[in-house]
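Memo to structure team: turn this sequence into structure tokens by end of day. - J.P.
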Amino acid sequence: MPRANVNTGMELEYDTIGSPDDPALLLIMGFTAQMTQWDDSFCKLLAAGGLFVIRFDNRDCGLSTKVDGAQVDLGAVMVAALSEQSMPHVPYTLSDMAADAVGLLDCLGIHKAHVMGASMGGMIAQTVAIEHPHRCLSLISVMSQPGDPDVGQPTPEAAAALLAPPPSSRAEYIASSPRWMTWHSKKYRDEARTKEQAARDFDRSFYPEGAGRQLAAIYASGRRSAQLAELQMPTLVIHGRDDTLITPSGGIRTAELIGGANLLLMADMGHDMPEPLWPILTDAVVSHARHAGGA
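Reply from structure team:
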């Protein structure tokens, strides 16, 4: 797969699906998740709907540049964020990650794109819309939230699974992966599929060192509520009613803040996008893009 030099010393691994003559759809994945979490077949469905799909690994994840050695006091960052005190130094913020995404568009010669992000990727997509609105045809925020600690907070079980110490071997990583099912769509939980994806992702890139820096970026970036309320662009917010990692109030609040936003609350969807729901999800995204313009 190709790599793009998007910032000084920062390269993103990416690929594309579909025709570059179609309107661009930039997909941004979530916390520690590699771009392969945007399943090939899911991307092909979007491309079949008339979109030029671009997916990439965020910094500190997958095959993109790792910020090796950069230290962060995650506990101090979280305390400062929740108490609204002075924020200690962090290696980067969501604004830097949003600039990475825009830099990828620059490298591809794309002036405007529909920007779609899932989970932390939704937070980055929101930041792109806030800080680079002239680069957005529309915003699609999936299973995310506006940085407000009063909404979208995980259940204790989901938080424990997310923050559990990383395993030390491939076998342990695969064996422990079913813990993630606590936030998966209840109706479609599949342990064999979860382990298969864990093996794929471990073999592609196992880099738990990036997790603390990405989480610090989320907390250090603070609330986006006031800025989202000023957005004037077509917006689709998608959230699962069964999401326990970013609970549905996060998506509901995001849609409330953005004037004219459409909210799709999905029954039987958790903090994942299982294959049985792809027809609904891709139809919603393609329809939104067509109505937003440029498709």
